Amino acid sequence: MVEAMLLVDTSGSIVLANSAAQHLCGYPNDALCGMEIEMLVPHRFRDHHRRYRAMYYKHPRKRPMGNDRDIRLLNRSGEEISVDISLSPITIKKHLYILATLNAIDRRYQVESALRENEERLWLIQQAAGAGIFDIDCVNGRVYCDERMRGLLGNEAGENMALEKFFAAIHPGDRAKCRAVFDETIDLSANGRCRGEFRLAQPPDCTEHWIATLGQAQFENGKAKRIVGIARDITERKLLEQTLQQQRNETEALFSQQVAIITASAIAHEINSPLTAVSAYGEVAHHALSVSPIDCDRAKVALDGCVQQAQKAGEKLHELIGFLQNREVQTETLNLNRIIEDALLQTRNDGFGEFQLALDLKPDLPAVKANRIQIQRVLVNLIRNAVEAMRAENVVNSEIAITVETLSGENMAIVTIKDNGPGIDRNTICRIFDPFFTTKPTGFGVGLSISRALIEANGGQLWIDPDFRHGAQFHFTLPYAS
Fold it and tell me: Where are the alpha helices (DSSP H) in 18-146?
């Protein structure tokens, strides 16, 4: 804070006043210059002040004014302000001047009081949230951590540590994400906000803990100078989310199983009677053909009955499938980029967000004509399959890339989803879209077959790249609305 300063000559006239003095006194510079200094003293003290000034000029020296007595300054609006004043004699071109430096006690007290209150509030918030404070020196690559933050990072963390050691405390699977958040935070073109959720690998047994960070970067001369923020332990919340997600997955699997059982039961019920009749007619035909002489008329009637009942079974099956598919697909004009973003948000909310995302969308992509729910379901299924495959193989830096382009020579968009997981062998690729074929211990083998059917119902195609060798790569197309 700039101090208020007045330069006064031996006659008691103000010669110069800085902007802080002008603000404190309430006068513009041209009004202050030439004014007698006693005009800034309350009326009851002016005569005393003139005598004091005359005595001081006889033996000028650097000293505080007032000897701890309350000194008042009278500003332009008539308000009296308590001030501390220090005097310093200055000689300029053989002329003596007195430099008076003024500090408003009331305002300083208010600022200090407000600062103490803010510090108390911050302390209470920190204690209530269980938050630790970190201060990253971006210039020197150092990180200051308070006691709570050191506790979150582990016993080996110091009060002041190298930035690389700070990153080393992050779980290997989240380090790339943490560095990406750091790089975005120090990017001047971004908003400088630091926000993220990361796992910590605490020594000595590398126990996993989750923290949520929130901070803000400070910039100087176009470069990030420091990042100040807080971190709090969210392990309990994450464990609860994982438990709820596991229960949700189990419920969804149970529901799918019940749907499959009910559907199979309905099919069995509808075709059981015709099949029983086919079996009975078959026995009659067998008997008619096994006697001597052969009963051709009876065998013919029985075989005719077999044909009729088999056709009836087929008709029943087609009627049931037609009933299940009797609803026409309701399509609308959709922003495919938005559908992909919504699907990503759903998969992360469902507990399948532990991957680095490379998203290449096209801002000027034409709208597609499709069913929102069905396309989002396909995307969620493909992303979850990729995460589960990488999770099963303990891929450390798991990545998923999603690209949207226009299919060359066609009025269609093509979406590509690829991961860096274990990949899919050729034998599995040949059967991967077959109903009830699965490589998962608890799977039903209907996810990809249903996904393909949904894409085809929306006028597109879904397939896997058999030659992709760095994970798995799926593509699907959708027609543009115009």
Answer: 19-25, 29-32, 46-58, 105-129
Q: Are 448 and 429 in contact (CB under 8 A)?
A: no
341 and 320: one domain?
no
Core vs surface per residue 250-265: b (16+ CB within 10 A) or e: eeeeeeeeeeeeeeee
Which mean pLDDT values do the consecutive 10-residue runs of the chain (482 residues) have? 85 93 91 94 92 90 79 90 90 91 74 65 62 89 88 72 88 85 89 88 72 89 89 86 76 66 70 83 87 85 86 76 63 92 86 85 91 90 90 86 90 94 86 72 64 88 89 94 86
Domain containing residue 140:
130-233
* Burial class for 142, CB neighbours closer than 10 Å (0-12, 13-18, 19+): middle
User: What CATH number does residue 421 fall under?
Assistant: 3.30.565.10
Q: Are 56 and 24 in contact (CB under 8 A)?
A: no
**End-to-end Cα separation, the chain, in angstroms:** 64
One domain for residues 429 and 376: yes
Same domain, 208 and 245: no
Q: Provide the domain count of the chain.
A: 4
**Is there a single domain that holds both residue 451 and residue 313?**
no
Note whether 317 and 342 are same-domain residues: no
pLDDT, residue 108, reads 60
Q: 102 and 33, same structural domain?
A: yes
- Judge if 158 and 268 occupy the same domain: no
Q: What are phi and psi of 351, to 5 degrees?
A: 90, 20
What pLDDT, on a 0 to 100 scale, did the predictor assign at position 260? 67
28-60 exposure pattern, b = at least 16 Cβ within 10 A, e = fewer: eeeebeebebbebbeeeeeeebeeebeeeeeeb
Q: Which residues contact 31 (CB under 8 A, 6 or more apart)?
A: none
Alpha carbons 333 and 387: distance in angstroms, whole number = 30
Backbone angles phi, psi at 65, to 5 degrees: -105, 135
Q: How far is CA 78 from the centre of its chain?
A: 55
The pLDDT, as a whole number, for residue 191 is 83
Q: Is the dihedral of CA 326, 328, 330, 331 positive or negative?
A: positive
What angle, 0 to 180 degrees and rounded to 10, lies between the N-to-C axes of helices 336-349 and 372-392? 50
Return the closest-CA partner of residue 136 out of 222, 213, 221: 213
